[in-house]
Write a structure and sequence with these properties.
The complex is a heterodimer of chains A (363) and B (260). Chain A is mostly helical and 363 residues long. Chain A has a single domain (71-362), classed as Orthogonal Bundle (ABC transporter involved in vitamin B12 uptake, BtuC), CATH 1.10.3470. In chain A, 67% of the residues lie in helices and 0% in strands. Chain A contains 14 helices and no strands. By secondary structure, chain B is α/β, with parallel strands linked by helices. In chain B, the strands form 3 sheets. A 6-stranded mixed beta sheet of chain B has the order 6-7-8-3-9-10, sandwiched between helices. In chain B, α3 (97-108) packs across α4 and α4 (114-127) crosses α5 (143-156). The radius of gyration of chain B is 19 Å and the shape is globular. The termini of chain B are far apart. The chains are: A mainly alpha (363), B alpha/beta (260). Chains A and B meet through α1, α9 and α10 of A and α1, α2, β6, α3 and α4 of B.
Chain lengths: 363, 260
């Protein structure tokens, strides 16, 4: 075995050498630390297994979503099926996929396992955008809150990155510790600022507007108007980020180092952020602000052994979609005939998981 | 393969108003040479390495690789010429050691099949005596083990010029010796090595040439024995360094005035 390249004598000769020393004390590491230790033991070819799971899990979740309703389980009438259930299940899947994809991208690009569109304030920014349009746009303007959500998401994300850019190593500077913590804190601050703006708008709104505002804030699929824009956004985001997904992995390992390997880091980062914003904005536009899908989904996908961005991105999207369809199914049925906002269910799963990940990291 | 610095000026952080680290430095590094980069903490060793890697444009002067300014090199062509191994690594996500090494191979050798890349990555791990940890999560390794994986990664890149930032800082003696052995072979095979080191004795045995920064803009460079002298080291580090010569070898130690 050796390098096939002939233009590099150092390597070729180097390969022929034998290890001269230091062979005596080699300790093989087995599950030394609890966090994630079992990830490495999950060796079985995860891809076929994951494909199999996805092939069964996605239709199963969709079917489950279609079969459940506030009136009980069972196959609904054709009218209800096509006018209510199908759009809703599709909207749920698309929203979950968009949030999970955005989360995976943000985690890679900020090199932070706790990254998430919600934690970074993007979701709050999208809410502000949507609410602004709701309050200020002339009536009859088609999809005004949806457009506002996309713009708000882009605005919040740009603000986070503009503020945290220096601490992230001035783009590519020699700084050894990229300020991932700073990015996170800046995101939390932007989110807090957006919440304040939302409170202000709540105070200013009239009763009629309040109803639709609450929908945006709770994260509810009940009022999802159109299911397909978020699918388009997910498709576009994948199209933008997936072809060079491998390079995102290298950036996650060290952005300056990735640059020395010839990766145009700034460009990749910008594209990934744009894709994440697009997906988040579309998700918020469809279902309001739903937290923690973006945080949790990529981690669970990683735990199955699909660690590389090339696998992580599409499978996070699939898992996020399935997760939100199931969460929405629970939300619709758990206190039927009343319905819970899906954000309640996703947060009640997501918050404990987030805390667990955070606390185990320090262990 | 040669690297030339011409009237190089570097300020802290690359800022025009930053503290001056290197005022005016001209030198060339040639194949077969092993350069050690010495100087007190904060003298600009890492900054110089980062600048030579192309990550930081110099404040003045130029860095020429094969006679062509560094900024004029396309990223991938440059990656085939020089490998940069930073001082710190932050691994946010689970990844095995061999996959870390494989990054460099995937990036620069798309022609290799996946099994060939894995075999090559494992080979480089064995070169630095960490092949037994190939399937371990890099976040669970000790500092020295992580460092050896970083060195394997840098070598796997296959670029003749190695820029290493304190590669021995976490290594035990046996692996310092292994590193030395590897770097000597690297240069004997036509590669060039520039490595920041703090251990003066290691520096002396490792180097053919040395570059000593004083942290105030001044720099002394040249063949090892000219630079690694007690008076120069004492001046640069601000403490009395004594030197002993024995069997053509030099030994350095701090000459404490009031040993406890």
């Amino acid at each position: 075995m050796g390098s096939e390249r002939s233009d590099n004598p150092p390597i070729k000769k180097f390969l022929a050498t034998k290890r001269p020393l230091a062979n005596n004390r080699r300790v093989t590491r087995k599950a030394a630390n609890p966090p994630y230790a079992f990830v490495m033991t999950l060796k079985p070819p995860p891809l076929p297994l994951a494909l199999l799971l996805a092939a069964f899990g996605v239709p199963a979740a969709l079917l489950l979503g279609l079969l459940s309703g506030s009136a009980g389980w069972g196959w609904p009438s054709e009218e209800i099926l096509w006018l209510i259930r199908v759009p809703r299940v599709l909207a749920a899947f698309g929203t979950g996929a968009a949030l999970a994809l955005a989360g995976a991208l943000i985690q890679l690009v900020t090199r932070n396992p706790l990254g998430d569109p919600h934690v970074l304030g993007v979701t709050s920014g999208a809410s502000v955008g949507a609410l602004l349009m709701l309050l200020l746009a002339p009536a009859g303007l088609l999809l005004a809150p949806e457009l506002g959500a996309v713009l708000g998401a882009l605005g919040a994300m740009s603000l986070v990155f503009a503020l945290a850019w220096r601490s992230m190593g001035r783009g590519l500077a020699p700084s050894a510790q990229p300020g991932t913590v700073i990015v996170l804190l800046v995101g939390v601050m932007i989110g807090a600022a957006c919440s304040a703006v939302v409170s202000f708008m709540l105070a200013m709104a009239n009763d009629l507007q309040l109803r639709s505002i609450v929908f945006w804030l709770l994260g509810d699929l009940n009022g999802a108007a159109l299911w397909w824009p978020v699918w388009v956004a997910v498709g576009l985001a994948l199209l933008l980020a997936w072809p060079r997904a491998q390079e995102l992995d290298w950036i996650a390992r060290g952005d300056a180092w990735a640059w020395t390997l010839g990766v145009p880091v700034a460009k990749r980062r910008r594209i990934a952020i744009f894709a994440a914003c697009l997906a988040t904005g579309a998700a918020v536009a469809t279902a309001g602000s739903i937290g923690f899908v973006g945080l949790v989904a990529p981690h669970i996908v990683r735990l199955t052994g699909l660690r590389h961005a090339r696998m992580l991105l599409p499978f996070s999207a699939l898992f996020g979609g399935v997760f939100l369809v199931l969460a929405d199914t629970v939300a619709r049925t758990i206190i039927a005939p009343a319905q819970l906002p899906v954000g309640v269910i996703s947060a009640s799963v997501g918050v404990p998981l987030f805390l667990m990940l955070l606390l185990r990291r320090r262990a | 393969m040669s690297l030339r610095l011409e009237n190089l000026r570097l300020n802290a952080g690359g800022k025009p108003d930053g503290r001056s680290l290197i005022a005016d430095l001209s030198l060339s590094m040639n194949p077969g040479e092993r350069w050690v980069l010495l100087g007190p903490n904060g003298a600009g060793k890492s900054t110089l390495l980062v600048a030579l890697a192309g990550l930081l444009p110099p404040n003045a002067g130029s860095i020429l690789l094969h006679g062509k300014p560094l900024a004029g090199w396309p990223g991938e062509a440059l990656a085939r010429q020089r490998a940069w191994c930073p001082q710190f690594w932050l691994d946010p996500f689970p990844v095995s050691a061999w996959e870390t090494v494989a990054c460099a191979l995937f990036a620069l050798h798309p022609e290799h099949s996946a099994p060939a890349v894995e075999a090559l990555a494992r080979h480089w791990l064995s070169e630095f005596d960490v092949d037994h940890l190939a399937d371990t999560d890099v976040r669970m390794l000790s500092g020295g083990e992580r460092q050896r994986i970083a060195l394997a990664t840098a070598c796997a890149q296959g670029a003749p010029l190695l820029l290493l930032d304190e590669p021995s800082s976490h290594l035990d003696w046996s692996h310092q010796a292994l590193l030395q052995e590897r770097l000597k072979r690297w240069s004997a095979d036509g590669g060039t090595v520039l490595t920041a080191v703090h251990d003066l004795n290691l520096a002396w045995t490792l180097a053919t040439h040395a570059l000593l920064l004083d942290g105030l803009g001044g720099a002394v460079h040249g063949p090892r024995d000219d630079v690694l002298q007690a008076d120069r080291l004492s001046a640069a580090f601000g403490i009395p360094v004594s030197m002993r010569e024995e069997n053509d070898a030099r030994w350095f130690r701090v000459a404490l005035e009031n040993p406890l």
